[in-house]
Write a structure and sequence with these properties.
Layout: H1 4-15, E1 30-38, E2 41-52, E3 57-68, E4 71-84, E5 87-97
Antiparallel strand pairs: 1-2, 2-3, 3-4, 4-5
Length: about 100
């Protein structure tokens, strides 16, 4: 099942992409990297990548690694989904935190 944050992200990506209700959303592969800040301090990085696996199947990967003093947190999420008749259909979801 897609996590709420991943589903919200997908809906935001689709928001400007659909011109008619019957049209399939246009998704474009991308890769982005971010610096995470807390109270003005650089505490780590995050990456987000959308990959097209085949004509209607996609993979959305989120990775983050943050640390402050003796605390550290690594997260990995991968959502595989397809688009069928303009609808997001979840296929697989993986989440790992360490």
């Amino acid at each position: 099942m897609l996590r709420k944050s991943t589903l919200v992200l997908l809906l935001m990506i689709f928001n400007g992409s659909v011109s008619h209700a019957q049209d399939l959303p246009a998704l474009f592969p991308f890769k982005s990297e971010f610096v995470a800040f807390r109270f003005g301090d650089d505490i780590g990085t995050a990456k987000l990548e959308l990959t097209q696996l085949d004509e209607s199947q996609y993979s959305l990967i989120y990775e983050s690694k943050v640390s402050k003093f003796f605390l550290s947190d690594k997260r990995y999420e991968n959502s595989v989904f397809s688009i069928e008749d303009g609808v997001i259909v979840p296929i697989e979801y993986n989440y790992k935190r360490s």
